[in-house]
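Example for tutorial group B:
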């Protein structure tokens, strides 16, 4: 059960006056005030005390102000080999002058669109942070991929974040992908501040009939960053949604990723990798809702934890009564490199149909000493041998990144972190 935190912490957000979306904002504010932020014993945040952390770190949060970055800064932040279009954000606000937009794709501010879409997928009643975003975000971005569009090059959502007197950065993104369309998004954040800051992000994705959506997320925030990221997707008949989330840094990160399978012969794939050290805390909460028959979902999350870091995985799969012939698989595997590292894992299945193939499981352990010894007997130093074994464990997730240049970039980051570069 939730309870309201100190009212003054988010007072500056809730009292912000932004034009547009009055009905959506009013509904979300009511929902937020009813739920309150999660208390210490709230089941969904049982191992992630983000409410207490926010209270301790920020005396009051106010809306973040956008700031200027140069074209050179944007260019230098884009990973090597990237070829595609870039949508640039500073503290959550879209910067069209620094962005490039593919012909045939509609990109506009949410304030220029009807408010009926806001909160129709990521419903504010499901989570207090989602409600807070909808009640107080300044403006967002609307992306529409038209019917039958085959976008061959990825679209990079490049966010620059910077502390601004304890401000809250609240990006809002709406993506709709038309019938028979295919598109790839890469969501990457760049940290420009050593001071603590709070990000509360909501992304809603609507995949129409026979659409293919790839969504890759790289989290490499500042070590003092607090982030709550909510990504919720609806997919229709014959559609496919694939996501890969890689978490490398941040003081406390909570990822809410939900997939609603609303059409038969659809497929959802959710993969994640978290490499944690220091006192970094990352909580991955996933939800797959099978509502119709003849659909499939696959989920694999892997974690490597060192020092005093903490990882949390809570994955839920719902198979509704009408969802016969469902195939749903979920797995969470972890390696602990330190006695002080902690992982809490809770894979869950809730099945109401009787003709299904479903499985879930989790493992937590340490490196295989025999494999480590074997590599050392072949003339490989202990540290590098350890890095090779860890990369062999983590690399399985990276193989699910279909965009070659981004996969190479992530591979380099992971190998550098694990010490497995040759």
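The residue assignment follows.
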């Amino acid at each position: 059960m939730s309870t309201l935190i100190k009212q003054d912490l988010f007072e500056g957000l809730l009292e912000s006056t932004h034009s547009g979306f009055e009905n959506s904002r009013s509904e979300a504010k009511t929902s937020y005030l009813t739920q309150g932020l999660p208390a210490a014993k709230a089941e969904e945040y049982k191992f992630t005390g983000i409410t207490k952390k926010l209270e301790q770190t920020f005396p009051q949060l106010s809306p973040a102000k956008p700031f200027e970055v140069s074209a050179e800064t944007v260019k230098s932040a884009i990973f090597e080999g990237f070829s595609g279009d870039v949508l640039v954000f500073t503290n959550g606000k879209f910067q069209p002058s620094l962005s490039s937009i593919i012909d045939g794709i509609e990109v506009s501010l949410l304030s220029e669109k009807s408010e009926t879409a806001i909160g129709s997928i990521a419903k504010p009643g499901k989570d207090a942070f989602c409600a807070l975003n909808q009640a107080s975000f300044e403006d967002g971005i609307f992306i529409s991929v038209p019917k039958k569009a085959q976008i061959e090059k990825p679209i990079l959502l490049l966010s620059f974040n910077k502390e601004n007197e304890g401000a809250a950065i609240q990006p809002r993104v709406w993506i709709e992908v038309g019938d028979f369309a295919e598109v790839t998004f890469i969501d990457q954040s760049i940290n420009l501040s050593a001071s603590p800051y709070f990000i509360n992000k909501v992304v809603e994705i609507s995949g129409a009939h026979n659409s293919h959506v790839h969504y890759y997320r790289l989290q490499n925030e500042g070590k003092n960053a607090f982030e709550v990221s909510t990504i919720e997707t609806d997919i229709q008949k014959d559609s496919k949604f694939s996501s890969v989330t890689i978490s490398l840094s941040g003081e406390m990160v909570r990822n809410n990723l939900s997939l609603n399978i609303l059409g038969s012969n659809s497929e959802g794939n959710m993969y994640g990798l978290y490499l944690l050290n220091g006192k970094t805390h990352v909580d991955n909460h996933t939800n797959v809702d099978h509502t119709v028959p003849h659909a499939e979902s696959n989920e694999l999350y892997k974690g490597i934890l060192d020092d005093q870091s903490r990882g949390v995985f809570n994955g839920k799969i719902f198979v509704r009564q009408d969802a016969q012939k469902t195939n749903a698989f979920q797995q969470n595997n972890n390696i602990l490199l330190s006695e002080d590292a902690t992982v809490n894992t809770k894979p869950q299945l809730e099945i109401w149909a009787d003709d299904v193939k479903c499985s879930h499981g989790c493992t937590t352990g340490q490196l295989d000493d025999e494999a480590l010894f074997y590599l050392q007997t072949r003339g490989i130093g202990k540290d590098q041998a350890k890095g090779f074994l860890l990369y062999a464990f983590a690399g399985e997730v990276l193989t699910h990144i279909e965009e070659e240049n981004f996969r190479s970039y992530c591979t380099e980051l992971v190998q550098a972190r694990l010490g497995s570069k040759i």
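The radius of gyration is 21 Å. Compare this with the pattern of hydrophobic and polar residues in the output above.
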